[in-house]
Structure formats: structure tokens, C-alpha cells
Specification:
two-stranded antiparallel ribbon; single chain; 3 domains; Helicase, Ruva Protein, domain 3; Tetrahydropterin Synthase, Chain A; 9 helices; elongated; 228 residues; 54% helix
């Protein structure tokens, strides 16, 4: 009896030839993409070489479209975009129901695309609500006025002066009190009012990682009826 026309050996050979042809086709497609574009896309997004090649192939070599494609797929990394200016974003207002507290806050991102997302808009609204409730004095520790830091430190030093503890211990006690002060009065260090298990800064960094963009709380102003 003659063996069937498509025996195991023939099928295996066909599979090898198919694989070789597929690889050759892939090499040919990849060769059409300018290596400089691949390098630039990798530098901007932090994505792997094959991901960048595929994105450029699917966008006909358009780097901007390839960046957006990688971001949509969650491949682009936020830290690679951190050096770009965060000049887009939103300004949001909040007025407390009793009409006695009002807030304006500006939050920036890199692209208008992210600024229009529900997640970004929700973050800005939550920050305005948080500021109204927690009454921070600055966005970050480095923005707290020098005279305020010096005044608080002097108060804490006076508080521990008569503790009878050695000077190195007193210094650590003062540092601990300053840390607590920053956690209570600096926006990015404060526990988030809707979830005190995470800081406001963690909330901002979390969205930055999700969107792949540098997100910055630029500034805020808080008014309270009868305040200075």
C-alpha cells in the first residue's frame, strides 16, 4: 500500500518552509522601518524594540501615532515622558455647599488627549474637594515658605528642650514633628480625604503611571469666608 500523499515527514517539511517564509516576510517588513525612528520611539516611550517596530509598522512610520498607539496599549512608560513639558491640563473650581469655602486648582499633563479623559478630570475634581477639606499650605514640601519651616522648627525645638533627652535624640524628635507637620499641611503629603490609606501624591503618581504622562499639580488657591 502506498503511503498517504501528506505523510508526517512531508507535513513537517511544509511547516519548516512556512515558518521560514513567515520569518523572511517579517524581516522584510521590519527592514522597511527606519532604525532611527525605532530608536527615537524607544527613547520616548521606554517600550521594547519589537513593540516599537510593530507600532511603527501599524502606523506607517508615523512616530506621533505610534506613541499614541503604545500608550493606548499600556506599553509606553510615564517616566520616559517626565522630561517633556506638562503644559496641558485643567483648572477646576469647587465651592462648598454652605458657600463659605471655595477652591481653584490647576493640574497639568503633557497632552490634551489625557486632559480630556474621565480619569484625569476626576482627579482634578477630587483634588479641589480635598483642598477645600484639608486646607494645605503648599503643593509640595519645597514650596512651603522658608520662614514657615523655620518658625515650626523653632517651636518644636522649644517643646523638646526640657525633655531631658540627649541632643541627638531631641533632633530626631524635632525631625519627627516636622514630618508630621508636612503630612498635615502639604498637599502631596496629606492622606487623601476619600481614602486615608494613600497620600495625595500617590494618587497623582498612580494616574501618571496609568496614562504614561507626567502629571503635575501646578498651584491652587483656597478662600474661606472672612479669611485673610
Amino acid at each position: 500500500m502506498e503511503p498517504p500523499p501528506f505523510g508526517p515527514a512531508l507535513l513537517a517539511e511544509a511547516a519548516v518552509l512556512y515558518a521560514a517564509g513567515y520569518l523572511q516576510e517579517m524581516k522584510s517588513r521590519i527592514a522597511q522601518i527606519d532604525p532611527k525612528k525605532i530608536a527615537e520611539l524607544r527613547n520616548r516611550t521606554g517600550a521594547g524594540m519589537m513593540d516599537c517596530k510593530k507600532a511603527l509598522e501599524e502606523t506607517n512610520g508615523d512616530i506621533e501615532k505610534a506613541v499614541d498607539l503604545l500608550r493606548k496599549r499600556g506599553i509606553a512608560k510615564g517616566e520616559k515622558l517626565a522630561g517633556r513639558d506638562a503644559s496641558e491640563g485643567l483648572i477646576n473650581s469647587y465651592v462648598h455647599f454652605n458657600g463659605k469655602v471655595a477652591v481653584l486648582v490647576e493640574v497639568n499633563c503633557i497632552t490634551d488627549f489625557v486632559a480630556k479623559t474621565d480619569a484625569f478630570q476626576a482627579l482634578v475634581k477630587d483634588l479641589a474637594l480635598h483642598i477645600a477639606s484639608a486646607n494645605p499650605v503648599a503643593v509640595s514640601i519645597d514650596q512651603v515658605p522658608k520662614e514657615v519651616v523655620e518658625r515650626e522648627r523653632a517651636i518644636y525645638e522649644a517643646q523638646v528642650a526640657d525633655s531631658g533627652k540627649p541632643e541627638p535624640i531631641r533632633a530626631k524628635m524635632v525631625d519627627g514633628k516636622m514630618k508630621k507637620y508636612f503630612e498635615e499641611r502639604v498637599l502631596l503629603e496629606q492622606p487623601f480625604v476619600k481614602d486615608d490609606k494613600q497620600k495625595v501624591g500617590d494618587l497623582v503618581r498612580g494616574l501618571s503611571g496609568t496614562t504614561g504622562e507626567n502629571i503635575v499639580v501646578r498651584r491652587f488657591v483656597r478662600w474661606e469666608l472672612g479669611g485673610a
